[in-house]
Amino acid sequence: MDIVSALRAFLRVAETGSFSAAAIDLDLTQPAVSRQVSALEGHLNTRLLHRTTSALALTVEGEQMIAMALRVVEAVDALNEASCVETAMASGRVRLTLPAPLGLYVSDRLPGLLERHPALSVELIFREEPSDLIGDGIDLEVRLGAVSDSTLMCRRIGWTTAFLVAAPCYLERHSMPKAPDDIGDHQCICYSRAGDGRSWSFSDGSDEISVRIAPRLVANNAVAVHRAVLTGGGLAVLSHLLASPDIEAGRLMKVMPEFPPARLPINVVYPSRKSLPLRVRTVLDFLAQVVKEDPLMAS
């Protein structure tokens, strides 16, 4: 039995929840994948998956096996890369999660990466809140703000830039706020990220000013906030990636430019402390480069 291939098959079945889906990803037949997993269970003398006619589920032993299987597969991948550095090509699928504004920015540029690496594929997942990286089978995740989980590897690739904005039709009905204390008199549309949606932070050039707000509308997706503010629903803090085209076209106006929203670090996190597979490292370097190319995120 090729135990590494069997471990790969088990990981794909655990991630997809299906022998058929895993077979497609691995370019094998469904019976071949089933045989590999069964052989692995026989080798380990333990059941890793509960099988019924309609569903699959990990056993307790199967759940414990995932982290160990990942370490083995990553170590083998790293060994293969080290033995053929000059001829190595990024191949396989990378699952990447990131907030919607940055996801849209990245998706415009991904075809160029995939053209340069014909054997590479990327699955984009737009997600505002932190994932269970190992449990969800995520290779890389972009998180905004400080990363508190010390078990994860973290690479800072840039900084957010955002604007407080409103539609002209809203500002025709309400006075333009001049300072953060004036915001309490306004309708606020709030982007709630990881449970935080009741305060906005601004900078006066030296200090950070936090303002409590009572939003009438809260959404956990920045694109939804963007659409709502365009209709004149109120004030909103939007990423420059979403707001800049509308500001240039006059559909949105900057509010309180002397007090810009506080900037947050853009971090990429990943679960492995070992050498990253070439496919993952290629996408990570790509993310760092595309962020660096935007001067409002580079520093």
Automatic annotation (TrEMBL):
What are the GO MF terms of this UniProt record?
DNA binding; DNA-binding transcription factor activity
| PROSITE patterns tied to this protein | HTH_LYSR
Q: Which domain of life is it from?
A: Bacteria
What Pfam families does the entry give?
Answer: HTH_1 (PF00126), LysR_substrate (PF03466)
All copies of domain HTH lysR-type, residue ranges: 1-59
Q: Which UniProt keywords apply?
A: DNA-binding, Plasmid, Transcription, Transcription regulation
Q: What does this protein do?
A: Transcriptional regulator of the ttuABCDE tartrate utilization operon.
**Which family would the database say this protein is a member of?**
Belongs to the LysR transcriptional regulatory family.
Name of the protein in its database record = HTH-type transcriptional regulator TtuA
Source organism per entry reads Rhizobium favelukesii
- What is the phylogenetic placement of the source species in the record? Bacteria, Pseudomonadati, Pseudomonadota, Alphaproteobacteria, Hyphomicrobiales
